[in-house]
Amino acid sequence: MIPVLTIDGPSGAGKGTVSRAIAHQLGWHYLDSGSIYRALAIACLAQKIALEDVSAVVEIAQSMTLAFECKEALVVLLDGEDITHQLSMETTGNTASIIAAIPEVRAVLLQKQKDFKQPQGLVADGRDMGTVVFPEAEYKIYLTATAMKRAKRRYKQLIEKGIDANLSEITKEIKNRDKRDTERKVAPLVPASDAFYLDSSDLSIEQVIEKVLNFIQ
Ligand code: DC
Fold it and tell me: Which of 20, 43, 67, 140 is the most exposed place for a label (fewest CB within 10 A)?
């Protein structure tokens, strides 16, 4: 039995930072499922594929090869090319959210995600980790925060990276993305019925990590 911890929730809730820290502390593998949808978005944008062209998007999803290399930071290679920098761009996230609503795309990417379940354990972060990809997981968390808090965190991250940002624009994009991710027909963002619901609006990252570790123990 390989233990799995799923952390699902809307964008900007802190899933990535929390999941990486927990995986590191436990010595488990880490699946950033959003990066798979993001990589597909980058491939589609690079090849100028119309996002409505389902068969073309599916073909890319089937043929793309992804490699995750843990150097000082995580490096992601798409068909051998380093796409780490493009992964965190806003256009990438928004395009990923659009193609993630295509059922055939989700079907193709399902096994790629399941393959991350390896000894000694896995921390998987995304939208449907506890509901669709690893419904059998022993530990499930739904991590959320108000849209305003999430937008402010994102704004701060961008400014710290020296990227120009506009708070009201980011809030609007976060709300649009929430709407798309929660209202899509396949694998929408919903808490699994057996998930521990955690609102991080008034918590620091350290406090969230502590709560998650307590939950597991
Ligand atoms: O977690 P993220 O912001 O990197 O994800 C980008 C988009 O990918 C998100 O808006 C919806 C999609 N996604 C998904 O549909 N299912 C997942 N398990 C992870 C991400």
Answer: 67
